[in-house]
Amino acid sequence: TQPFPPPPPPPPLKIFNTASTSLEPFCPKVAGEASMYTCGPTVYAPAHIGNFRAMLTYDILKRVLLHVYGMAVTHVLNLTDVDDKIINKCRETGRTRAEITDKYTEVFMSDLASLNILPADHYPKATDYIGEIVEMIQGLESKGLAYKNDDGWWYSVSSDPSYGKRVASVPLDPRSPPASDADFALWKAEKPGVDVPTALWDTPLGRGRPGWHIECSAIAKALLPPQIDIHAGGEDLKFPHHENEAAQCAGVGGEGWCGCWVHNGFVNVGTEKMSKSLNNFKVLSTACPTSLSKRAFRYLVVSSHYRSSLTYTEV
Q1: Does the pLDDT of residue 175 top 80, yes or no?
Q2: What are the strands, taking DSSP E only, across the chain?
Q3: Residue 112 vs residues 52, 77, 83, 109, 158: alpha-carbon distances, Å
Q4: In degrees, to the nearest 5, what angle opens at C-alpha 149 toward C-alphas 146 and 155?
């Protein structure tokens, strides 16, 4: 018998890059390797099925890179374990920040496994990178891009002429700090009576905690090459989160930090995005209580176009 001929090589890979709004050839910085940073959940409650659409998008993209193109992929997925929602839950329940976030991190990891999602190489927690966050903010200050006021440290949008043009094209009319509404928090100063002790750090920036956007920039800089190949997340993260990340990284390391920005569409309930803030969300264990229904949800997501919206209905 004759052996089967080898399969033909795959066609050149093209990925839709949000930053350019076009399909582009995927050209990793190092041939045969891909560095990939993806935004993970805030671990104060179970993730909902809209969150898991993003996780499944990351999974399919990574499987294509690994198994179709034979690349070595380094994948980082962060876990936000300090923010306003977590602090509110600490006050409401009397539990520590770690007690809350450890519990829901475990739930998240279990849900990932139940959806047959390939594990990331790193699941960094924001609070494990306080030193790197402080160092990045100090670097931004040295470039004239960060300033301090009574509320903490802020990114100066008016000092960055490329702000609003790196990931999502956003018309801005920034004014001089500290009056600018566009400036965003890098480090939040302690608010007595509001903050909880387990979510505060004494640093050269003062006593406080990191803002949301800075954690991803600092973690990516710590765990991945200076220039990464892919950054992915839900389409709601284009602005301001990913634009802010790109600004911070450009401020300390120069332009061109990320080669390709990938964003998936929403899971909607009716005409509204599924979200915890709208209280219209379904967690995986409720929406898909059996292993078969989880497989069905995975099939629904991976067989749809990742940039289109999906609508959740109950029958």
Answers
A1: no
A2: 14-17, 22-25, 33-38, 72-77, 146-149, 152-155, 184-189, 201-203, 206-210, 228-234, 258-264, 267-269, 272-273, 310-311
A3: 8, 12, 23, 5, 40
A4: 25
C-alpha closest to that of 127 among 64, 1, 42, 245? 42
**Residue 133 structure tokens:** 């966050």
Of 69, 58, 71, 72, the C-alpha closest to 119 is 58
Q: How many CB atoms lie within 10 A of CB 201?
A: 18
CB 18, CB 261: distance < 8 Å: yes
Do 129 and 218 touch, CB atoms closer than 8 A?
yes
Q: Of 42, 61, 96, which is closest to residue 215 (Cα–Cα)?
A: 42
Beta bridge partners of 137: none
- Look at residue 41 and tell me whether its pLDDT is greater than 90: yes
Tell me: pLDDT of 178 over 50.
no
Instruction: Give the tens place of pLDDT for each residue, 223-275.
Output: 999 999 999 999 999 999 999 999 999 999 999 999 999 999 999 988 888 88
* Residue pair 41/188 in contact by the 8 Å Cβ criterion: no
pTM greater than 0.90 (yes/no): yes
What are the CA-CA distances from residue 38 to residues 75, 137, 224, 271 (Å)?
8, 22, 12, 26
Helices 212-223, 243-253: axis angle to 10 degrees equals: 50
**C-beta separation of 190 from 184 below 8 A:** no
* Dihedrals phi, psi of 149, to nearest 5 degrees: -140, -170
The token duo for 179 is: 């009056």
